[in-house]
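Tokens in:
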């Protein structure tokens, strides 16, 4: 029997809904992920030709996602939702929050993007990615409603977002698994993101920088306003990560002093760093934690950890047991962020797509044999590829621009010309796998593989690493 929510949707969508929900009508059943993933993007691709402006306020239609989730009765209560946004560190912070809360005894759903190798990586419960079987089961159940909603779109610029469709699969999985709380990473921006249709008791904001110009506006202020759009009337707790001076002032004016701010309410102190990770102490609103260790490289990860711990204190309503917190952080895995995947030579993967992120690569140099450094770079056209190339040229003996073995993104035609502007001996190789073979002949002591997440995914496949269960 259909529940009240489904009865409402039957009225809205007609008899088609009942037939589709029970028997899935004539809709083709997806049997493989290879069939399913293009379908998730079909509404967006249909709208693309009509989107003359890259402006989320004009092209995004999160109300369609809300309609989908409402019809499927999948909208959780706000006290089960933590929304996480930012320009840098939101994925790492989301993962850390999920890991800490799991160690505190909660069953945690985690929704992030993009994936590195398998699409399923975007949806996890207690660190384990959703199976192909369950993903396809949910998507096949939802497809008739998705089709009906997309067919009803009147504005040709609008689309039922891939993030919204994927969110419906995630929430169905979380509901089936009876999660206690769900950590949801915002896809892009905040205000108009499909995930922001959810009520959220918690809002977490990592570092914000100028990014997605056009989509989110034309100034830092526009971007900040978009990001803090996840702070709504239903939001009781706001935790703000480390920000630049200008960004911090903008955020204070928008969210007020009731939020917890990095530097004022919680502050980490880095005590040591090695190739195995970082050690630090942390003062929060509820207490002090000594001798914390993180098996991740980069001082920015300590900043992300501080943000995550403070967020978890607001969830638990108290200081966290020190031994549980130490365990959660010391066991943490989060691929593609200054990640060491091989030794002799040392191979480090990092998803830097702007000059600010690339600058953190320098922190690795004192920790390893850096006599001969090779950097392989693949940053998409719509990201700060020149900034990444410029920064990496400063410490690289050999610079290679390339593309991932598998990616739908567009990469710059002038990458080699830009690279040679900063490093006269830079070379270009067609694909990452070919680039890796080339640089090995150079006998480097350190190899950086830097760029978009599909680049990191290609590297993970080369170095044979499964990401379906990260604990």
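Residues out:
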């Amino acid at each position: 029997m259909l529940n009240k929510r489904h009865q409402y949707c039957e009225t809205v969508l007609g008899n088609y809904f009942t037939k589709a929900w029970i028997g899935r009508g004539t809709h083709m059943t997806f049997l493989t992920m290879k069939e399913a993933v293009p379908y998730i993007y079909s509404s967006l691709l249909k709208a693309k030709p009509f989107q003359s402006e890259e402006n989320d306020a004009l092209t995004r239609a999160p109300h369609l996602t809300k309609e989908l989730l409402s019809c499927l009765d999948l909208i959780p209560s706000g006290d089960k939702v933590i929304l996480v946004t930012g320009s840098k560190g939101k994925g790492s912070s989301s993962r850390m929050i999920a890991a800490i809360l799991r160690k505190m005894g909660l069953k945690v759903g985690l929704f992030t993007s993009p994936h590195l190798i398998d699409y399923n990586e975007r949806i996890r419960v207690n660190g384990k990615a959703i199976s192909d079987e369950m993903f396809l089961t949910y998507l096949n159940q939802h497809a008739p409603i998705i089709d009906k909603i997309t067919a009803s779109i009147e504005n040709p610029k609008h689309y039922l977002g891939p993030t919204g469709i994927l969110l419906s699969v995630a929430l169905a999985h979380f509901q089936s698994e009876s999660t206690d709380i769900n950590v949801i990473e915002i896809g892009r921006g905040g205000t108009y993101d499909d995930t922001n249709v959810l009520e959220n008791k918690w809002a977490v904001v990592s570092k914000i920088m100028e990014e997605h110009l056009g989509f989110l506006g034309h100034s830092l202020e526009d971007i900040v306003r978009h990001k803090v759009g996840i702070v709504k009337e239903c939001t009781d707790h706001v935790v703000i990560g480390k920000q630049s001076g200008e960004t911090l002032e903008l955020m204070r004016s928008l969210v007020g002093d009731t939020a917890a701010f990095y530097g004022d309410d919680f502050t980490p102190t880095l005590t040591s760093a090695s190739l195995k990770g970082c050690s630090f102490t942390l003062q929060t609103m509820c207490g002090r934690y000594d001798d914390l260790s993180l098996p991740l490289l980069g001082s920015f990860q300590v900043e992300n950890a501080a943000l995550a711990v403070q967020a978890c204190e607001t969830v638990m309503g108290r200081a966290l047991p020190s031994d549980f917190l130490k365990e959660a952080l010391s066991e943490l895995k989060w691929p593609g962020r200054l990640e060491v995947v091989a030794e002799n030579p040392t191979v480090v993967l990092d998803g830097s797509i702007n000059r600010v992120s690339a600058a953190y690569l320098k922190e690795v140099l004192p920790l390893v044999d850096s006599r001969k450094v090779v950097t392989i770079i693949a940053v998409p056209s719509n990201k700060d590829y020149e900034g990444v190339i410029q920064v990496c040229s400063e410490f690289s003996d050999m610079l290679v621009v390339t593309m991932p073995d598998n990616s739908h993104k567009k990469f710059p035609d002038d990458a080699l010309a830009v690279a040679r502007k900063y490093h006269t001996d830079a070379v270009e190789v067609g694909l990452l796998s070919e680039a890796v073979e080339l640089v090995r002949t150079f006998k480097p002591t350190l190899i950086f593989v830097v760029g978009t997440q599909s680049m990191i995914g290609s590297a993970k496949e080369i170095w044979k690493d499964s990401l379906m269960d990260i604990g």
